[in-house]
Amino acid sequence: MRPIGPISRASYTAAGRFIFAPIPVAARSSLTPTCFIRFTEIQKRGRLRNSVLFERIPLMEIKRLQPSKCTPHWVVIGILFISLILRWILILRGGQYFNSDETRFEVSLAAARLLWQGQLGEALRQFTISPEHLGFKVVGLIPALTEQIIGPSLVLPAIFFSLFSVLNLYLIYLLARRFQTSPRESLYALVFAASCLSLLYYSRHLFPYDMAMSFGLMALYMALERNPTTRTSLACGGLGFLCFITYNGYWPLAGFAMLVNILMKREEFVKLIRKAIFTSIGFIAPLLLLILAMLWSGADLISAYRLFATSITQGSFQEGWSLPFEYFWYTEYTIILLIGALSIFAISSQFKNRSDTKIWVAGFLSIYLCLVIPSVLHYFVVYARLARQLIPFLVLLAAQGLVQLEGRVAYGRRARQLIFVIVLLQVVWNFVQTYTIGFPRDFAAEAQARFPDFEFSSKRLAYGAPVICQYNGYIIENTKFYVAPPERIPQVSGQILLSELHPTNFQPYLYEGDPPDFRQAYGALKLRMNLYRADETFMSESNPEWMDMKSCVTGEN
Questions:
Q1: pLDDT tens for each residue of 131-163
Q2: How remote is the C-alpha of 91 from its chain's centroid?
Q3: Cβ neighbours for 297, distance < 8 A, ≥ 6 positions apart
Q4: What does the domain layout of the chain look like in residue ranges?
Q5: How far apart are CA 282 and CA 415, in angstroms?
Q6: What distance in Å separates the CA atoms of residue 299 and residue 255, rounded to the nearest whole number?
Q7: Could you tell me the CA-to-CA distances from 299 to 126, 305, 489 in Å, in that order?
Q8: Mean pLDDT within 93-121
């Protein structure tokens, strides 16, 4: 067996044969590393209790196993701080309420208003009207109640929910450290996670995905406790419940975390049953309480969830197996190629020897199958928001692969430097695209601010609104949410006053239910939001385009 831990200089000279190195009990504390570097102690029938067994170790592996300094806390804090600032800048650039799914936060706002007025019963009743993603709506009470104090804000709730996006990065870092691996490995996992656009751009919206992922990763962290207890099993089940109830689509992540808690260690059958029982109690007990509370209020949670699950049919069932990889390409580009290659390298080099590698591979495969199989059976369509559950496992594997590359390949450090240069350049390219995209609500607000004699009703932002509308000699087009590409955009004669790319030009948005032909159509159209000052000749009553044009203010025309 191979030692995993600090090896003395004297031991290196004997690395070519088996030796037993006695370790005094008093000195054992000095060998306990602070950087989570493991060593193997032989304890069999009371013999060799204070010895470490060494065996043939390649020179590159010996160098890899030498103690290194722990990752400075300021490095981790710095990466997380920069990630948080990037998310807040993104939020300040707008985008809230672009997607109709963001209106679920309105339930939190309505409940908060009623709570503020002292109507507790009515506030609680708001959560029974549409109980999907209930955890998101309940936690959303925090920013919603804050709005009751400081006033309405689109930015405030997004800033609050973005904290979970940054928390996910830290949880990935903690998961890498859970197995007491090299501190570089956990740092690399954090860097790769912070570089993934798929873990960034949702933070500008009011979605439950990041919050649910936080609960799921916390459940997995509890499942990997080295000395599991009844409390850790209950906590894992409870966090799995919070993951599922916050966003129902992340049930594969919650389920995998609970399975790891039960099956990770080879134990007696009785102990496995015990862990299974307490993990199930942690998940089922709050679920039963919620079901009973809903029934008491007149709502059937099970029927509501069953009905909601059958509604995830927008898109293409046939591309369920390929959509995650196509989506990752358009979010990460070369980064996903590097992460994939490093993951394969980690699997090929250490799959048999490291339990954490097996767990990350199992996590990726189990979640992937939980997406593909229901899609093949035409139960639900795979969306980008579901595919991003795979990213943490790919990142963790890639970090292992990079450490292996450094230690086992010639010029490994130069290869690492090259990889990080490529990642940095690709991150800049990816993030710039996200920050330069515009949104209909913000475009209309800017148009009204710069041209006060132009008015625009918010109802014109909805997907049923006309493609183009006019008010007081101004014409605005494509300032709306599309569920399908427009068949025809009327030609306008006038001076362009404002112009900005429509969100459909941001490719990752097109993997949230748009079938392949829609994505191709959007790519060909390259829609822009435009504000015109119409020519006098165009506004003639003899021009049918002008006469058929709807007003930008609802209630007129």
A1: 899 999 999 999 999 999 999 999 999 999 999
A2: 16
A3: 124, 125, 128
A4: 9-65, 440-551
A5: 45
A6: 25
A7: 11, 11, 44
A8: 94
